[in-house]
Amino acid sequence: MITASDLRAGMTFVQDGKLIKVLEASHHKPGKGNTVMRMKLRDVRSGATYDTTFRPEEKFERAHIDTKTVQYLYTMDDTANFMDLETYDQYEIPVDTVAEEMKYILENMEVKIQFFGDEVIGIQLPTTVVLTVQETQPSIKGATVTGSGKPATMETGLVVNVPDFVEAGEALEINTTEGTYVKRANK
Question: Which residues contact 100 (CB under 8 A, 6 or more apart)?
Fold first, then answer.
């Protein structure tokens, strides 16, 4: 069991039979009354996000999440297919449950899939990935890194704001947690 005051972003717990992931957590002390925990939560199975508050002493069952390193193979219809690199077992995940993560994944890329018991519940991405710019406005002569930037569409369809000097065809390192440009990459 874990108390609400010990919950942090990224943790997963079980509440009323639902698997809940903490997106944001903060202590809040109103002018009058007791301290409460403000939480932004996501139902892992349905994908619904909501805000709520808990008393700090409320207890929840902590969910034990296992991860496995797998290779992304392909997407067919509405299903993304992954393969365990050790056992060669294949896993199918509905694309609508991992739509955001799929914007950072290329074929043959290694990622980690998360399990709750035998149930596949999501994908854990690396901190950064290297993607190629598919389309962007032409570079501006004399542009610097400190400029306002311009939108660039990556090879996966992800749109990222990049510096003005970036051109189509360049490989860039992208932060997967924030969806932001980090630097040019050596591909």
Answer: none
